[in-house]
Design brief:
about 15% helix; five-stranded mixed beta sheet; Immunoglobulin-like; 38 strands; about 40% strand; about 700 residues
Length: about 700
């Protein structure tokens, strides 16, 4: 007997890619989803005898083993214990068509497929080739199954998105290029798994666990930051970014992931929370796990998880770093969709993952997956890191004035400030969807109270940290009133508010009014100490801009307004790479009442306009015209216009803009040749050392060739 010889193998690329929803991947390799049949055709040099036996061997990882589910041996027309199977289909003479099934709980990753043929007493073994197996949100038996087709398109197949940033009262959409199907990105995502600490410590066990989205997503949350295992992105929240790139200048994940991969796994400098979340979204979508990006406004970083975040200021309004707790204007994380076999079906659905290195979890900077259902119900004892995320959306915000004699005074406790307008991009459009109700019951409701008390009990926080009924009833306010530590809140004697006179624009003076009102019939002298600081989105001060002191006399129930001007010359050197200012005013009366008024300001910059000069069709060149304005009252040089977009530009495009006069508008034209059809996002970014980036984007509907 002569064993049949195989001339070549046809992996039926188009047929399989269409069936498996993988035709968007820029790869010639067979990319398949688990729990679903795929076809291969063998072209034979010799004929097959009727008694020939066919055995397939699928294996993955460095040391495949059936006991670890990293190797499957299955005979034709017999379903083996592994759940893998193969059947033969009718075929032309000289060919053999096979349908191969992988189980819905198969390990994901790159596989080798071998065929062993026993013909009489002869055994031949042939490597048929390699394929990549991914999670399958289209398969009802897969843990990542998502029933809604529009949601699958958004959370698995959409290569672009919106990440919301700014302030709770000034929410800004920022475009992000995920690019999970761009050339090399899937290989990089698989390399991320292979670079993890778990893989280094026990490669066989690590690969064996890759059938589980809980495990894979947690590993990715650790690997996207560089803190433990030379992961992808290095975070930086202070100082200058000279030895890397300012986090505000990234517009997408593709450039970052390629830079890490091409640079032999050297962490890419620098990222902040939206960068970590954008990159993690790309990696998880590329592996087939439905994933979205979430923004939590007024996000608590509660280091000791006691559900209380303390802020200290001195009598001049300067923020004091007496605690490691903080409240960020916003924080960005991810949610991925899968079931929780470890917790029970009640906790299935959206799971929070956070790659920003804030706190260690089991010794490593990783966070999640934490079930949103567990967070909403206060089940803070459940895996993974549910207590940390619960605190981020539920902690109290307590403000203290710290006097020079080390005496401190609690002036306000706000129970409703934290966890506002939790946001994500809508399915199918770029609008904002509020998902706060997925994280907590309505503020002040009876159910929300019960959940909070349950969480305190599970965390073992002593009753002294509980909110009093008086504090709980208080409504959120823009001002902070002195509260006696042992008595109910006093009736406030003065009120105050900081008001912007006009929208603040980069390059122009900022005009504010501090309005103070005497709420009593007694005459009062109020000492006002006002301070303006450039801050990060974490509300950490970067540089002082302005300090002033005033003494204001207020008659019975009198209102007085103090005009404040922050000139461009005062803030320009502090705001060359960002646009955020915090203004604080500490107001004290001789009667001892203390008032803290705060105002967060984000400077606006002029829009850039993007015009596409013709229809967009795959493989047809089209010109794009971008018009932008120098917002400053001075000449700027050495600006760069950058453009990127999955399916539109293979690499980021950079065009030098030599010089712009004060307030001068300039137009740049460039060519794009789309290479993928469908709805595409073109992002344009004007980068300059004199001011923070001016960004814009346009959605293009690219027709097939």
């Amino acid at each position: 007997f002569l064993a049949p010889k195989i001339a070549n193998v046809n992996w039926q690329s188009k047929l399989n890619k269409d069936a498996h929803h993988t035709s968007d991947y820029s790869s010639t390799e067979a990319i398949l989803r688990r729990g679903q049949a795929f076809s291969i055709t063998l072209n034979l040099q010799t004929t097959v005898q009727s008694g020939d036996n066919f055995t397939f061997i699928a294996s993955t990882g460095p040391s495949p083993a059936e006991s670890q589910q990293t190797k499957a041996i299955f005979n034709l027309s017999e379903e083996g214990d592994s759940g893998w199977s193969a059947t033969q289909e009718p075929s032309e003479p000289g060919c053999m068509n096979f349908i191969i099934f992988s189980p819905a709980n198969a390990v994901i990753g790159r596989y080798k497929l071998k065929l062993q043929i026993v013909s009489g007493n002869k055994i031949s073994s042939t490597l048929l080739g390699q394929f990549v197996l991914l999670f399958n949100p289209w398969c009802p038996n897969d843990d990542v199954y998502m029933a809604n087709e529009k949601e699958r398109w958004e959370y698995v197949l959409n290569e672009s998105g919106i990440i919301f940033q700014g302030l709770e009262k000034y929410i800004q959409p920022e475009a992000w290029n995920y690019g999970q199907f761009e050339e090399g990105i899937l290989d990089i995502s698989l390399a991320i798994l292979d670079r993890s600490l778990n893989h280094c410590q026990d490669p066989a066990a690590d690969v064996s666990n890759r059938n589980n989205p809980i495990y894979v997503s947690r590993v990715v949350s650790a690997m996207v930051n560089s803190n433990d295992e030379k992961g992808v992105v290095e975070g930086k929240w202070s100082g200058k970014y000279c030895s890397g790139i300012n986090p505000l200048q990234w517009s997408g994940s593709v450039t970052i992931l390629r830079k890490w991969y091409r640079g032999r796994y050297k962490p890419v400098r620098y990222g902040q929370c939206w960068v970590f979340a954008g990159v993690m979204c790309t990696v998880l979508r590329s592996l087939g796990i439905p994933t979205r990006v979430i923004t939590n406004f007024n996000s608590a970083h509660d280091r000791n998880i006691n559900l209380s975040v303390d802020k200290y200021v001195d009598i001049s309004g300067k923020t004091l770093h007496l605690t490691k707790d903080s409240v960020w204007n916003f924080h960005v994380w991810n949610e991925s969709w899968f079931i929780r076999r470890d917790l029970g079906s009640f906790y299935d659905g959206w799971q929070v993952l956070d790659a920003t290195p804030q706190e260690r979890s089991k010794g490593i900077y990783q966070c999640g997956p934490a079930s949103t259902r567990a967070i909403k119900e206060g089940d803070v004892n459940l895996d993974y890191d549910t207590s940390f995320v619960f605190a981020a959306v539920n902690a109290d915000y307590v403000t203290w004035i710290h006097y020079s004699n080390k005496r401190k005074e609690r002036i306000y406790s706000n129970t409703r400030k934290i966890g506002k307008f939790i946001s994500t991009k809508a399915v199918g459009t770029n609008s904002r969807v509020d998902v706060t109700a997925n994280y907590k019951y309505p503020e002040g409701s009876r159910k929300e109270r019960q959940v909070y008390k349950k969480a305190l009990k599970l965390l073992g926080v002593r009753s002294t940290a509980k909110r009093t009924k008086i504090e709980r009833r208080r409504r959120q306010s823009s001002v902070a009133w002195r509260q006696n530590m042992t008595q109910p809140a006093q009736t406030p004697s003065i009120s105050g508010k900081l008001i912007l006179d006009a929208s603040p624009v980069i390059g122009q003076d900022i005009l504010l009014t501090l309005a103070l009102q005497n709420l009593t019939s007694d005459f009062k002298t109020v000492k006002v100490k006002l301070r303006a600081s450039a801050i990060l989105y974490t509300r950490k001060p970067k540089a002082e801009i302005l300090q002033l002191s005033r003494s204001i006399k207020l008659g019975s129930e009198e209102v007085k307004k103090i005009s404040v001007k922050i000139s461009y010359s005062q803030y320009k050197s502090a705001l060359m790479d960002d646009r955020k200012i915090l203004v604080t005013a500490v107001c004290e009366t001789k009667q001892g009442a203390s008032l803290l008024v705060e105002k967060d300001i984000v400077l606006q910059h002029p829009f850039l306009t993007i015009k596409v000069l013709g229809p967009t069709v795959v493989h047809k060149a089209v010109n794009v015209q971008v018009t932008f304005t120098n917002p400053l009252p001075e000449v700027v040089t050495d600006c760069v216009l950058r453009a990127e977009g999955s399916g539109l530009l293979k690499e980021q495009l950079r065009i030098n803009v030599a010089r712009m006069d004060p307030m001068e508008s300039s137009t740049v034209q460039f060519e794009i040749i789309p290479y993928s059809s469908g709805n595409r996002q073109l992002q344009v970014d004007l980068v300059c050392i004199h001011f923070s980036d001016i960004k814009g984007f346009v959605m293009l509907d690219v027709a097939p060739a």
